[in-house]
Structure formats: C-alpha cells, structure tokens
Fold this protein.
Amino acid sequence: MGYTLAQKIIKNHLVCGEMVPGKEIGLRIDQTLTQDATGTMAYLQFEAMGIERVKTELSVAYIDHNTLQNGFENADDHRFIQSVALKRGIRFSRPGNGICHQVHLERFGVPGKTLLGSDSHTPTGGGIGMLAMGAGGLDVAVAMGGGTYYIPMPTIVKIELKGRLRPWVAAKDIILEVLRIMTVKGGVGKIVEYCGEGVKSLSVPERATITNMGAELGATTSIFPSDEITRAFLKAQGREDDFTPLSADEDAVYDEEITIDLSTLKPNAAMPHMPDKVKTVEEIGPIKIDQVCIGSCTNSSLYDMMKVAAILRGKTVAPTVSLSIAPGSKQVLTMLAENGALADMIAAGARILESACGPCIGMGQSPNSGGVSLRTFNRNFEGRSGTADAGIYLVSPETAALSAVTGVLTDPTTLGDMPDFALPERFLINDNMVLLPDAPADAAKREILYGPNIKAVPTGKPLEDTVSGEVLLKVGDNITTDHIMPAGAKILPYRSNVPYLSQFCFGVCDKTFPERAKKAGGGMVVGGANYGQGSSREHAALVPLYLGVKAVIAVSFARMHKANLINSGILPLTFKDPADYDLIAQGDEIELKDIKNAVISGADAILVDKTAGREIPLKTGFSEREIGILLAGGKLNYTAQNR
Ligand code: MIC
Ligand code: SF4
C-alpha cells in the first residue's frame, strides 16, 4: 500500500509514535516562523529554556501584525524580538517586508520540509508541498530548540480537483466551496491533500490561497503536490535548487474523498459571522456595501493584485465605498510599483496600506456601525473587524475589486473575457529587509532588549487530586480564540502583558467574565463543539490561566487550542455523551472528583454538579506526554522538571 504525500513527509520526519490515525506522533521540525503578535511570548519562553542558539535548519521572525505603533508597546516588542532573533540564530524580517506567510512562501519555503509557525495560517506553505503547521508559541519555541513537535496522527482527506476554473472564478472560490462542504469543524484531526487534473491549472499563489484558508476547516494542514508549476515558481524566485518533485503514490489510500469540478464553480462569499456560511455571490444578490478590504495572507500575492489592478484600471471606487489594499509583501508592492499596476489602484481611489496584516486582525479600517464590508481575508468572526455589529463577507479579490467599483456585491464573471495573468519569469528579488543573525562568536555581545510592557509569562500549578469551582461561563459551538482573547488595534499592543489583556478575556461573549472570574478565585468554562477554533494564539489559554480557569469542559476542541490549554496546565475535558452539555448551567458549582487519577489512568472523570445534584462522565484519554505536562501544571514546568 502506497503513501499519500503528507504521509510521506510525516514518515521522513517521524521521531516517535506510530502513524495510526488519532495516536500521538512526534515530528522533527526543519523550519520555524514566528510573527510579532505571538512572537514575544514565544521568545520569552525560548529564553526561559536557556538555549543559546536555534537548532532548526531555518528560523525566521517576522514583524507583520502589530505595526500601528500607537504608543511604545509595539516598538518595544519589535526591538525585543529583533534582539533575541539575531542573538539566537534566527533571521529577522523587518516591518515593511510583508506578511509572514506570503514572504515565507516567496523566499524560504522548501517542498518536502516541515514548517512550524506560531500562526494558524502557516499551512500556506502547503502550496509548495511543505508540511506546514500552526502551533502555540511555546511549541514553536521548543521546536526552535530542536525539540520534537507532537500531533495526533491525522487522517487524510483527498480532494480531487477536476476541470478548470472559468474566467474570474478564483482559488478563493474553491476553498470557500471546500468550507461549505466540510464546515469549520470538518477538518479537525485531518490533513487535506489536493490532487487531480485541476491542480495543474492552479499557480502556486492560487494553491497557497487554498492551503492558507484550510486553517478555517480546523485541519492540521493542507498540501498540494510539488510539480513543474512549483519548480517554475521557485525558479522565478531564484530558488530552483530548493525544488523537489513530490506527489502521493498511485496506490495511496485516503480516509475520505471529495471531488470538486472546478468548471462548475461560481464566485462564492462567506457570510457573517463564519467562514463556512458560504453562498454564491449570485444567491446573496447585490447587497449594498460600505467597505472593501483587499489583502491578508490569503489573497495578497502579485497574481491577486494584478487582477485587482486590471479591474480597477480606469474606474473610480463607488462614492459610498472605502477601498483599502494591502499588498502582501515588499516584493509584491515593489513589482506593482514598477509595472504601473499600483498607479492604477491609486488612480481608482484605493487607499494603499503597508504590507502587513492590518484590517485582517482589526488593526484599523473598522467598518461603520452596522456596515457591510467585503474582505479577501480568511476570517469573519464576530467583532474581529473592530465593529461589533458589522457584517463581514469573505470573497475573492476579483469579487472585491469589482464590487468596490459598483458599490454592491457583484459577480465578477459578468466581466466576460479575462486577460492572461501569467506569473513573471523572474520576481524582483531583494532580501535587504531580512536581517541575518549574528555569527556565533558575536552573539554573546548582543544584549536582549526588554521593555516595560513585556511582563512575565504566567505558569500553572501542579494538578491537584480534585479540582472544584464554579462554571464561570457557558458558551455554544465554534467559539473562536477571537471570542476568548480578542485582538484588534486597542488590545493587540498588549500581547506581552497578560495581566492587562485579562480585562478583555471573553469580551465578545460576556464582558463581566474577567471580574467574575477574579471574584470567584477562578473556576471552569463549559463549551460546545470545536471550542477554541481559529488562531494559534496561546493567549487564549494563558489569559484564562491568569484568571484562574482550571478546566474547560467542551463537546470537542480545536487542535491547536487544545494543545495550548495543555501547555498552560488547563485541563481540556470532553463530555462522554455530547448531550450532557445541556445538563450543566452557568453558575453551577462543580467538582472534578479524583481528577488526577483519572488523568493518569485514562479512565473517565466524574464531574459532580453540586448545584444540579448529578454526576456527568467526562473523557480524559491524554497521551503519556500530555499527562506529564498536565501533572506538572504546564509545559514550562514540565520542561524544567525533565531537564
Ligand atoms: C489571526 O489571524 O487570528 C492571527 C492574528 O494571525 C493569529 C495569531 C495571533 O493571534 O497572533 C493566528 O491566526 O494564529
Ligand atoms: Fe495576518 Fe490575517 Fe493572516 Fe492572521 S489571517 S496572519 S492576521 S493576514
């Protein structure tokens, strides 16, 4: 029996464990990336490990999220990250160089390698056949130190692409279709592998759009084969030597199969407030729009920008619409400037933003009250834009650009024939904004520069025999890390200051949560299915830890958040019978009787609901390594004990 592409890369990087779905496997990590919003924590944790120099083949620290610098906090974080990076053997991508995933794809990604990034959209690298995964900062710090990365062995979903896209239908419409089919929880515990004839008609930037937004499926990662199209892309980036052809074996066996005929797809849009609430643009109809934002790690390549410029050329943005465009990298922006496309965008009235995450993470461009915003981004979670009652629709760059001109949601296939948007034979290569690390001999002289906003990372306490407390909050299905620990322009500058961040914990669900949690001296949270989906931010675990949350009891968990809870020493427990979710109420006093033994033995835990007077069985089922971490009260304690 042959292997799928993902299984081949896993097999080549397997440090421990068996490749049996659901069983924990340990992987060797070749490359890491961090961004600044998760990077400060990752590097504080790396420093706490006392490792002189990274042990990976390549590690890059990007600055792309917090770039407003509305105060000293961001600048201090950047300076801190720069000092650690250069001292410890990590390349430093300066602010202005671009969004981590776009730049990494252009300049550093290598087919067949493993990449671990402290950002959930790291699977963008799957567009060139990397096994690229997102993780919490602490897991990335461990990988930088040469440590193994652990995941449950995923099942493999084959998505066979047939036919080719019609003019003006985009890669974004493919991944929106996949989201419609699989939903935001349909990818948990799975790797999505693309194959079939249709793959050959997709360029690397289009493939990367698809693997990027595979994060919204909850998938461990997504991957495309590495073929002649990959070679041409790497060659145009002056990196043909990094190319290796890679594909699944003919007789590979998949756990699930989905077929999509590209020629039947229409422009899609994800409606507020979930990336899987997908309908065709035609079905939604010509709703009036107030804002259009083009950019983000999903859709900011040169390829996307050239289409946008072609649509805007000679037109003017509708009087009622504000259009912003953030090209994904310095390479993209420079090439647009040189070939004149930037001038077309500016002439049409687009507001050009720096090459960074910007509005995608709520760093500016919040829509007006009740406004409708079309965005080429990957997430439209409630409140993420900074305007609580705004309606965010996720669309392709083509749909976004045309709608910006018409003022209403408009299907771009009405444009008729499409010019040929071939990729250049040679991208403009200038890595002058990537600083190389110190030579080992010089590193000792470099001082690590902290700032007053950079506070200590909270650590957990060893697990007690019995854990009890109040159900501080009960939430429903698909709660995102943006609900648990919101981001945005007002909060993001405090990513290195957990005590300050704690005031905003669960702000989208219940603003009284932080006060109540403190008053009660901590307690528990109850959640529905897919709890903690979305980002990799470990702040969604560290901040609840700081507020005294001891356990989260949910119907099911998203992969990265579950790992972050365990790393923080918070118990993630699931209902044995999902229907029991209905039996617990917010405010109930509960006890996890003899929980320590249950965690150790893997037996069911018993939740005693003292208020309701009933017992509810919960599943434990942690790996040996996870048990060690939970008993120690988190991964930092565990690592210190096992040194
Ligand atoms: C996001 O898109 O939500 C982020 C901001 O990039 C996060 C990381 C973070 O919270 O810093 C992610 O996707 O992991
Ligand atoms: Fe940045 Fe948005 Fe991509 Fe997250 S999803 S890395 S905030 S562009």
Q: What stands out?
A: The chain has 22 helices and 27 strands. The chain has a mean pLDDT of 97. The CA atoms of residues 480 and 532 lie 5 Å apart.
